[in-house]
């Protein structure tokens, strides 16, 4: 493990009545400890997962639009509202790593196309010439080398078929010994990674939750096991 925890520093200048401090999970957040090499952020849409992940990326020196330290390309997502208020505690500190954000992946691919050396790290083939899912796995396989690093992934499942989500679990397993992962996800497959910490953003303050207690697990399981009755209930007038 490298990143052991974080702390939100509030000063007199902190506007607690504005975004991001109005988000319940952020408003009540003071300190958060990371206890596993793989930590998931889980919670409803809008619960603050991306806001926190982006702030961590900002403090890691990663491009907050997605990328690593060497990817200082321009997009419209350069600022992180929470980043300046965040303090990270490292033991030991790592600078290698990557912030992957599903929404801005396209911009990232465009940027890499402009860097001849950049492509070598991605299998020598433009990410635009690969499907969304292929490009993601290409990224995982070529960029996530066997080195000490921290990877911040925001909904990586957005690009991946269920089979490739399993492939991603395998990639994480292969790298877990040297790398730390923080992953915001809605995927009941990814959340099933063994011995990961799952942090629930739907309660205040943010707290650890068991896999089987997440809404994602409960609803998916109910749907798969009793699809007809769930749909009947849902479509009732
Ligand atoms: N730049 C911004 N200015 C004001 N409000 C914002 C901004 N970015 C996000 N928000 C709001 O902050 C809240 C948390 O957003 P965030 O993107 O962190 O949620 P999330 O947990 O990642 O959700 P999802 O699962 O849908 O990705 C939302 O209500 C969102 O509308
Ligand atoms: Mg999000």
List keywords for this structure.
237 residues, alpha/beta, Rossmann fold, three-stranded antiparallel β-sheet, 9 strands, 32% helix, globular, binds adenosine-5'-triphosphate, binds magnesium ion
Task: Spell out the blueprint of helices and strands.
Layout: E1 3-8, H1 24-27, E2 31-33, E3 38-42, H2 49-60, E4 86-90, E5 97-101, H3 105-113, H4 116-120, H5 132-143, E6 149-154, H6 162-175, E7 179-184, E8 197-200, E9 207-208, H7 215-225, H8 227-235
Parallel strand pairs: 3-7, 3-8, 5-6, 6-7
Antiparallel strand pairs: 1-2, 1-4, 8-9
The chain binds adenosine-5'-triphosphate and magnesium ion.
The site of magnesium ion (MG) has 4 residues, from helix 2.
Description of the molecule:
By secondary structure, the chain is α/β, with parallel strands linked by helices. The chain has one domain: Rossmann fold, CATH 3.40.50. Helices cover 32% and strands 18% of the residues. The chain has eight helices and nine strands. It has a six-stranded mixed β-sheet, covered by helices on one side. A hairpin with a 6-residue loop joins β8 and β9. α5 packs parallel to α6. The longest helix is centred in the C-terminal third of the chain and has 14 residues. It starts with a strand and ends with a helix. The mean pLDDT is 86. Adenosine-5'-triphosphate (ATP) binds next to α2.
């Amino acid at each position: 493990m490298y990143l052991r925890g974080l702390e939100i520093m509030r000063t007199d200048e902190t506007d607690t009545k504005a975004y991001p401090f109005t988000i319940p999970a952020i408003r009540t957040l003071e300190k958060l400890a990371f206890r596993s090499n793989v930590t998931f952020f889980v919670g409803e849409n809008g619960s603050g997962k991306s806001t926190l992940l982006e702030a961590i990326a900002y403090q890691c020196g990663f491009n907050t639009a997605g990328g690593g330290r060497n990817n200082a390309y321009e997009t419209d997502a350069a600022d992180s509202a929470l980043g300046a208020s965040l303090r990270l505690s490292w033991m030991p500190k790592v600078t290698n790593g990557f912030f992957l954000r599903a929404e801005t992946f396209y911009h990232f691919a465009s940027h890499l196309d402009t860097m001849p050396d950049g492509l070598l790290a991605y299998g020598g083939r433009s990410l635009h010439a690969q499907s969304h899912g292929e490009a993601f796995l290409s990224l995982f396989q070529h960029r996530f080398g066997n080195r000490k690093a921290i990877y911040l992934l925001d909904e990586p499942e957005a690009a991946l078929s269920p089979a490739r989500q399993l492939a991603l679990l395998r990639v994480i397993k292969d790298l877990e010994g040297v790398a730390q992962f923080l992953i915001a996800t809605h995927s009941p497959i990814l959340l099933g990674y063994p011995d990961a910490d799952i942090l629930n953003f739907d309660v205040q303050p943010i707290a650890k939750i068991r896999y089987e207690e997440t809404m994602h697990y409960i609803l998916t399981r109910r749907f798969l096991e009793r699809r007809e009755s769930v749909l009947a209930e849902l479509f009732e007038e």
